[in-house]
Amino acid sequence: MSSTEVPQRLRSMSPFEYCIDRDQARFPRDVVKAKCVCNEACFDSSGSRTRATVSMPVDIHMSVIHLDGVSGVEECTKSSCFVESLRVSVGCHCTSLDY
């Protein structure tokens, strides 16, 4: 497989995979999250792991609607649904161990 056929997210110095977080009591039900492939060392420009940096997720906060006892957002009332903040990893990056 050539490098152009490998997804860019896997060619990164801090590669990540996508997974689906599914919750039937939430709108949207499916949220795509990134998971770092390397929990420790990142890759350097030659493709070797380096202990000078670590792979860390890049997170955002996303507003979702929690559905309490209803099957869809169209059935929501003030007492059956509420907005909550969900922390979602959207990618990974390398960071130095020197703080």
UniProtKB/TrEMBL annotation:
<dbReference type="InterPro" id="IPR029034">
    <property type="entry name" value="Cystine-knot_cytokine"/>
</dbReference>
<keyword id="KW-0964">Secreted</keyword>
<protein>
    <submittedName>
        <fullName>Uncharacterized protein</fullName>
    </submittedName>
</protein>
<dbReference type="InterPro" id="IPR010345">
    <property type="entry name" value="IL-17_fam"/>
</dbReference>
<comment type="similarity">
    <text>Belongs to the IL-17 family.</text>
</comment>
<keyword id="KW-0732">Signal</keyword>
<dbReference type="Pfam" id="PF06083">
    <property type="entry name" value="IL17"/>
</dbReference>
